[in-house]
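Milestone 3.1: sequence recovery, worked example.
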């Protein structure tokens, strides 16, 4: 209900095919990096969603609230103010201090790509810029495709995208939807249809006032002498350098178009006037399609963030010169980067897939235990009808998509490009799963050197080494074992409070205690094994090290069998209570677990806890299902019902259950499916599982997990967060 339900932006993925807010027709990603674009705020009115509706696609920050463009100057028709739907393409940079590193952006330095929405043709005037997830495309951990409600326009926002891409269809009357590009800086220069060895034809804009401007010679814009806009033919590209930002952008068009532009201009003598948020506007006025039914695809990429070194982020430009490697803004590399962008402009990523080839059980040695993570970027031509077999693009299949029909490798397309992070580059350089470009095709991002890679399929091997174990790779140091034994003999007698045995608590703090008790059992087991000279399989210890630890373990008293059995009894009982369905009426947890059909997840009802003073640990929940406080209040249970911190919470439960199952296999077999619910919720590997999304917490592109769920999506302009990397790692230990 409310903010805890999927927004209408999920469209066809909602029950009933995409009406109002409500349940979903299948599991939905709750912690995906692009979630802020699908928040209730973004769904109700993207133009008012502000900073919250922005995501970090790398290297760009992408938003969905372009500022309203200035109306065409007189003698153009005026009428009511125009509304623009589309995306913002923003380049972030870093600001640092002694104790802080921030990634920031200036919206005025970015560009917007979209179209004008006609409010007078049946559009919902409350949200003329609204959109939904494109039901024609698969949900992907690497990106999301959006389709606008009131204008025939689609985009795919994908991690590592070198371009902002918009696909334009036709209006109900069969006319092409006409693209608009705007920016918050006036234009310094424009070049049309350049190519290798030729910069292109110069183009001038009209002034935003529609009249002649006696310009300040030190801040001259590319504006005609009489201030009137001219129409220009464009075969394929427009390069425009902006003044205040000092950014240079390139726009590629999949079909020949006619364009005109308007720009702010600074007069030699200042005069009072209105200051528009948009200082540059480029409009496509006609599309020449030659009868083709293909969409018009427009792609915009940043060529340089430091074109002259005199922009609003000069300190950032100075910093780039200290990196020790070239970037796209280095003078020596601009030509090669532009060449790569020109070659790659004909292919975009639409519905990328992630595949995981897990190591088998064929007895390979530890060095051979590799998982191959595959990114299939779904390289899609901007003009399918115009690209034949000679293009090298296999349109009918690609690596992961072909696996069901023989698994033959599909050749990479050499023109297709995406940006890769340092850990991608390291892996790709080892296996050749994508051709890495030179330094001059790199941005310096928050994550480091981020470079173009050619190839539509990336193979990213991950080494596993030794199989997972309850033991470390080496034994405890001999000198530490007496202290360990002393602590064990004390901790083994720890008594859980009564509320834990009844599941009358949140899902986090008691679970931490249960995992600690499990760890006590395992440390005791290890010291006993050392004392008995068992082969414990240490992978990073020689015989001398093991013998020294074994000798130390032989000299210390360890807990008795009865003490260990008593602790295991308590641990089993406390773990088991959460695994019984039906709540207290069925002798299960007072704060029972529920299956959430709206998103597809394992959530807890929550506990309104009451106790008698002096007996705080023996309290109880004074609520029961369907009165679920955690579902109503994001501050309950650390936001568990809002999909916050699931891997933190459930990781502790999984580890404690694993310890019980190790020592009591019959119990493990009995509760295997129930424990699997925790695992399926945070790390479901199978797209065939229709109850849980795959790998809820995982960000495959960055390589880390995300803790924040629905409320970060709704309320945080900073997007996702991962507050405890140690707990994220521990989550997969069980």
């Amino acid at each position: 209900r409310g903010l805890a339900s999927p927004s209408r932006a999920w469209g066809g993925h909602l029950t009933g095919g995409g009406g109002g807010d409500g349940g979903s027709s299948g599991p939905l990603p709750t912690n995906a990096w692009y979630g802020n674009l699908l928040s209730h705020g973004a769904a109700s009115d993207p133009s008012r969603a502000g900073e919250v509706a922005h995501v970090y696609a790398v290297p760009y920050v992408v938003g969905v609230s372009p500022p309203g463009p200035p109306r065409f100057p007189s003698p153009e028709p005026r009428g009511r103010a125009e509304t623009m739907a589309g995306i913002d393409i923003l380049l972030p940079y870093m600001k640092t201090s002694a104790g802080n590193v921030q990634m920031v952006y200036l919206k005025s330095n970015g560009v917007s790509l979209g179209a004008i929405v006609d409010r007078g043709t049946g559009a919902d005037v409350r949200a003329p810029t609204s959109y939904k997830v494109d039901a024609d495309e698969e949900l992907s951990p690497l990106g999301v495709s959006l389709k606008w409600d009131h204008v025939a326009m689609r985009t795919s926002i994908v991690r590592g995208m070198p371009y902002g891409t918009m696909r334009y269809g036709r209006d109900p009357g069969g006319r092409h939807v006409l693209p608009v590009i705007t920016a918050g800086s006036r234009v310094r220069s424009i070049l049309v249809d350049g190519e290798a060895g030729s910069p292109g034809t110069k183009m001038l804009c009209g002034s935003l006032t529609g009249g002649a401007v006696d310009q300040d010679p030190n801040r001259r814009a590319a504006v005609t002498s009489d201030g009137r806009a001219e129409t220009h033919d464009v075969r394929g590209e427009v390069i425009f350098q902006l003044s205040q930002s000092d950014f240079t952008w390139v726009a590629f068009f999949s079909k020949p178009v006619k364009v005109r532009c308007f720009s702010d201009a600074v007069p030699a003598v200042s005069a009072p006037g209105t200051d528009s948020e948009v200082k540059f506007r480029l409009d496509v006025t006609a599309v020449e399609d030659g009868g083709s039914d293909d969409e018009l695809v427009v792609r915009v990429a940043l060529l340089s963030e430091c074109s002259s070194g005199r922009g609003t982020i000069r300190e950032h430009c100075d910093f780039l010169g200290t990196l020790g490697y070239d970037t796209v803004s280095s003078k020596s590399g601009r030509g090669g980067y532009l060449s790569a962008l020109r070659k790659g402009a004909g292919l975009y990523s639409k519905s990328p897939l992630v595949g995981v080839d897990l190591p088998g059980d064929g007895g390979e040695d530890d060095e051979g235990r590799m998982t191959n993570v595959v990114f299939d970027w779904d390289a899609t031509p901007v003009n399918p009808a115009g690209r034949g077999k000679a293009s090298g693009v296999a349109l009918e299949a690609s690596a992961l998509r072909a696996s069901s029909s023989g698994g033959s490798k599909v050749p990479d397309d050499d023109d297709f490009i995406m940006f890769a992070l340092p850990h991608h580059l390291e892996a790709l350089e080892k296996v050749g799963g994508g051709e890495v470009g030179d330094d001059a095709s790199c941005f310096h991002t928050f994550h480091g050197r981020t470079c173009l890679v050619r190839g539509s399929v990336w193979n990213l091997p991950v080494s596993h080494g030794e199989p997972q174990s309850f033991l470390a790779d080496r034994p405890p140091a001999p000198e530490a074992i007496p202290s360990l034994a002393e602590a064990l003999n004390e901790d083994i007698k720890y008594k859980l409070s009564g509320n834990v045995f009844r599941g009358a608590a949140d899902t986090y703090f008691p679970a931490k205690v249960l995992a600690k008790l499990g760890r006590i059992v395992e440390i005791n087991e290890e010291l006993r094994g050392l004392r008995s000279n068992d082969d414990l399989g240490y992978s990073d210890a020689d015989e001398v090290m093991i013998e020294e630890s074994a000798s130390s373990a032989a000299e210390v008293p360890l807990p008795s069998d009865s003490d260990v059995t008593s602790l295991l009894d308590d641990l089993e009982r406390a773990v088991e209570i959460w695994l019984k369905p039906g709540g207290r009426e069925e002798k299960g947890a007072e704060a029972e677990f529920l299956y959430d059909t709206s998103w597809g997840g394992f959530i807890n009802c929550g506990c309104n806890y009451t106790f008698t003073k002096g007996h705080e640990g023996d309290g109880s929940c004074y609520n029961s299902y369907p009165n679920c406080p955690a579902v109503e209040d994001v501050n309950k249970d650390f936001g568990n019902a809002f999909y916050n911190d699931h891997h933190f919470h459930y990781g502790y439960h999984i580890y404690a259950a694993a310890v019980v199952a190790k020592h009591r296999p019959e119990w493990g077999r009995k509760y295997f499916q129930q424990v699997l619910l925790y695992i399926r919720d945070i790390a479901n590997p199978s797209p065939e599982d229709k109850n849980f999304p795959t790998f809820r917490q995982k960000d495959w592109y960055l390589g880390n997990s995300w803790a924040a769920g629905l409320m970060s999506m709704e309320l945080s302009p900073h997007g996702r967060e991962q507050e405890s990397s140690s707990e994220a790692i521990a989550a997969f230990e069980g």
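The first helix runs from residue 40 to 44. Confidence is low (pLDDT under 50) at residues 387-399, 402-412.
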